[in-house]
Design a protein that fits this description.
Number of helices: 9
Number of strands: 5
GO cellular component, one term: Golgi membrane
Oligomer: single chain
GO molecular function: GTPase activator activity; zinc ion binding
Strand content: 5-15%
Largest sheet: 3 strands, antiparallel
Order of helices and strands: EEHEEHEHHHHHHH
Structural class: mainly alpha
Helix content: 40-55%
Organism: Noctiluca scintillans (Sea sparkle)
Radius of gyration: 22 Å
InterPro entries: ARFGAP/RecO (IPR037278), ArfGAP_dom (IPR001164), ArfGAP_dom_sf (IPR038508)
Number of domains: 1
Distance between the termini: 41 Å
Keywords: GTPase activation, Metal-binding, Zinc, Zinc-finger
Length: 205
Amino acid sequence: TVSESGGDDTSHRFVLYDDIDFAVSAADVTAREFFAAREAEDLACADCGTDKTGWASVSFGTYLCASCANAHRSLGIRWSLVRRLADGWNWRQTELQVLRVGGNAALGSQLQNFSDVQKLSHAEKYTSRFAEYYRRRLDALCAKTPPPQPPPLESAATFSSGEFLSGVEALALAEDAAQRFGVSVTAVRTKLPIRAVASTGSLDG
């Protein structure tokens, strides 16, 4: 419903979803056009091959179905930053750049040389030393710096330290932490007596 008075009141009317005017920025349009022009291999999920790809792993520059996106999200932002395509809404150019230099075919091409990595479980594969190498590679390509050397075959399938963060991952983690902090501060404020908040003006008093 939409308020007739433009505020939070009890007088509302129903409107159709299609009649709502959503503001679309130039960046949103760019992202939408980018997703619409994807290569054929990027229309299928990089992990399972299904043809419904409404998500992407920004960390690996690949497109995913909802089920595989959930598997990536369960690993956490530090291992795989997952975003919904959502018609291009709120995508940064830096995130799109990772997908430009990456793509499903690029990851598949790199994996061909690492048979041991291909045999790993989903969680093991995307937290392996190969996975860290590939994230470093995409980060370097985006920054137009020399990419790292691939890991030795004998250690590519082993667990990564998890210390590396790409530029887009670091920004996402910082924003997530800031949001969590804001929510926690709000939660604390709601539990404080009104007089305590009013007298101190902050949570420090």
